[in-house]
Specification:
Elements lengths: L1 H29 L13 E12 L8 H16 L4 E8 L5 H17 L7 E8 L6 E12 L24 H10 L4 H4 L9 H12 L3
Parallel strand pairs: 2-3
Antiparallel strand pairs: 1-4, 2-4
Length: about 210
């Protein structure tokens, strides 16, 4: 009987010690190191603009030759997988609204004709300064994206421990966002959605696919 009680006491001590070791182990595992800074993944995207200037007269009439040059530029850009454009009216004097609407209509028509859609075209407005040559500046926009480091973690964090140091914190979120955004320009500066213009979209698809 005494021997049985001694064994029970011994087992109780073993159970208690095991529990203490487990608690201490958990406390050590879940304790964040002093001064630790998460490896936070960031979105890295840069925009590059290749500007091209096309002169007009003071009334912003544009010649057939200049229109043909713009078309050649846009066709070459499309072949190079360019999706985004911008354009700006340049002048050395104030531009009446009627003149602005006239030249914008022509430029947008050429862009749509060559497969570019409204959501990928940015109207930069009018820039007036002394000594400027009158005309239109068209910018070919391209983007350099740096994907986050998706290699193996530098340490094992376990399956359920959310309080430990987390290497590459947020990498999956950043990577998935980059993959989901159709227009890479929105990774640099989100823009207002202009809505769907079906006729323009169909025309763009026909031009890019060589359809009639």
């Amino acid at each position: 009987m005494l021997k049985k009680k001694a064994i029970n006491r011994k087992l109780s001590w073993i159970t208690l010690l095991s529990a203490l070791i487990f608690v201490c182990g958990c406390d050590k595992q879940m304790k964040i190191e002093d001064g630790y800074v998460h490896e936070v993944a960031e979105m890295q995207a840069e925009e590059f603009c290749e500007p091209h200037f096309f002169p007009t007269n003071d009334a912003f009439d544009i010649s057939k030759d200049t229109c043909a040059r713009i078309e050649r530029l846009l066709k070459d850009a499309k072949v190079s997988d360019v999706e985004n454009l911008e354009f700006m009216i340049i002048s050395n004097h104030p531009v009446p609204v009627g003149y602005q609407e006239k030249i914008k209509k022509i430029i947008l028509y050429i862009m749509y004709k060559n497969g570019f859609i409204p959501s990928r075209i940015t109207d930069k407005g009018v820039c007036v300064y002394e000594g400027a040559k009158t005309g239109i500046r068209i910018g070919i926009l391209q983007y350099n994206l740096k994907e986050p480091d998706c290699s193996a973690w530098s340490e094992y964090i376990g399956d359920t421990d959310t309080n430990k140091n987390l290497p590459k914190h947020g990498v999956s979120r950043v990577y998935n966002l980059q993959q989901m955004i159709a227009n890479k320009a929105d990774l640099v500066s989100p823009r207002i959605y202009k809505g769907v213009i079906a006729s323009t979209a169909v025309s763009g698809m026909e031009n890019s696919s060589g359809g009639d």
